[in-house]
Amino acid sequence: MSRPAVFIDRDGTINEQMGYINHLSRFVLLPRVAEAVRALNASGFASIVVSNQSGVARGYFPIELVYEVHDRMQDLLSKKGARLDGIFFCPHHTQGIIPEYTVSCDCRKPGIGLIEQARNELDLDMSSSYVIGDRCQDLEMARRAGLESVLVLTGYGRGEREYILPRERVKPAYIAEDLLDGVRWIINSRKQETG
């Protein structure tokens, strides 16, 4: 049976925003992230990471490093009893220098290719799914996919709320202090919908 998902941005939402994570040592989980993912696990939501990783196309790091970082992320979460159900990322950028990744694609956020890929692979109930991220491009991706969104104030979130969001058409359904706050809001909203 299909289940709803929460599509979660990575950098700035799950881990500290440090620009490009071009070395494993730069990946640092934010506080309360494992608790947030555990709450999703317990509530029946699929927890799915969707992330732009254009550093691959730009030649800043090899694609293998992205997989190493994701292995580390899964390992750190697993040690705290949390599980991600899927990780999808876009390595492309039209201004890249690595030919195989220097392409125009539909998976780079705010495009919805990553969401569609996850939906196709994991049999998701899109009618009750959400997006959480720290950038307006996450909110725009949600809008294009017909999903409600949550803006977190970690990562770029505070600056996006203050300087970018006022001039954007798309608005989040909720603004959260962090991932856990956003996840709790989603779970409560779902309970109210289902009675």
Characterization of the model:
- This protein is α/β, with parallel strands linked by helices and 195 residues long.
- The chain has a single domain, classed as 3-Layer(aba) Sandwich (Rossmann fold), CATH 3.40.50.1000.
- The protein is built from seven helices and six strands.
- A six-stranded parallel β-sheet has the order 3-2-1-4-5-6, sandwiched between helices.
- Helix 1 (33-43) links the parallel strand 1 (5-8) and strand 2.
- Helix 1 (33-43) runs parallel beside helix 7 (179-194).
Coarse structural class: alpha/beta
Radius of gyration equals 16 Å
Largest sheet: 6 strands, parallel
Low-confidence stretches: none
Distance between the termini: 20 Å
pLDDT averaged residue by residue: 97
Helix percentage: 25-40%
- Tell me what portion of residues adopts beta-strand conformation: 5-15%
Helix-strand blueprint:
Layout: E1 5-8, H1 33-43, E2 46-52, H2 55-58, H3 63-79, E3 86-90, H4 113-122, E4 130-133, H5 136-145, E5 148-152, H6 157-164, E6 174-176, H7 179-194
Helix pairs in contact: 1-7
Summarize the structure.
The chain is α/β, with parallel strands linked by helices. The protein has helices at residues 33-43, 55-58, 63-79, 113-122, 136-145, 157-164, 179-194; strands at 5-8, 46-52, 86-90, 130-133, 148-152, 174-176.
